[in-house]
Specification:
Layout (H helix, E strand, L loop, with lengths): L7 E4 L7 E2 L1 E4 L4 E7 L9 E4 L3 E5 L5 E6 L7 E2 L10 E2 L1 E4 L4 E2 L4 E4 L6 E4 L7 E6 L2 E5 L5 E6 L2 E4 L3 H10 L9 H4 L1
Parallel strand pairs: 3-17, 5-11, 8-12, 9-14
Antiparallel strand pairs: 1-10, 2-4, 3-4, 4-7, 5-6, 6-7, 12-13, 13-16, 14-15, 15-16
């Protein structure tokens, strides 16, 4: 049986907020939202999947990647798209693994560079930073009811996401490395 909203555990953060950004893959019509933890290489362990949205998790239950396979042209545009202004830092751990999710609703702003993934209706009790440009809304029962992502850019052949990851992990690009500039 599919779950409506992932159950999570919220604890006091021991490190900074992970870096994240949205990359819309033009050739695949999919949105990729990677989360990078500076100084470490998170490894895939499990997932929560609805067919349209897949949350990738590491062994500790941390979110490491969000994949939205619903094409951008099918996102529902909202007139009053208001990104949460306040969100607290937190260390969020997902407690559900390898479960199916009820397909969420996907909304966007007019420019389609901000997205809301709503897992279920209800009031958010808290807004938490899951990553830079990624906010999770949690209800009173510690269920993730929505994800908000901003700063989505177009990407072709994974070039932008690859360059971003190199920047995050401090790896210089072969194009801009000092040896190439001489």
């Amino acid at each position: 049986m599919a779950i409506t909203a992932p159950k999570i555990k919220v604890v006091t953060p021991t490190a900074g907020i992970p870096l994240s950004r949205g990359f819309y893959q033009l050739e695949e019509d999919e949105l990729y939202l990677p989360l990078e933890y500076p100084g470490e290489k998170a490894r895939f362990f499990s997932y929560l999947d609805s067919g349209q949205v897949c949350l990738h998790l590491d062994r500790e239950g941390r979110l490491i990647f969000v994949e939205v396979t619903t094409p951008r042209r099918q996102w529902k545009e909202r007139d009053h798209f208001v990104f949460p202004e306040i969100a607290a830092p937190a260390d969020i751990r997902f407690l559900d693994f390898r479960d199916s999710l009820v397909p969420p609703s996907v909304y966007c702003d007019h420019r389609r560079n901000r997205i809301l993934i709503r897992f279920m209706r209800g009031s958010a009790e808290h807004n938490y930073h899951l990553g830079q440009n990624l906010i999770g809304q949690v209800d009173k029962q510690d269920r993730l009811i929505a994800l908000w992502a901003g700063d989505i850019i177009d990407d072709l052949a994974g070039r932008e996401i690859a360059a971003w990851r190199k920047t995050v992990h401090g790896v210089s690009s072969p194009v801009t490395s000092p040896a190439r500039l001489k």
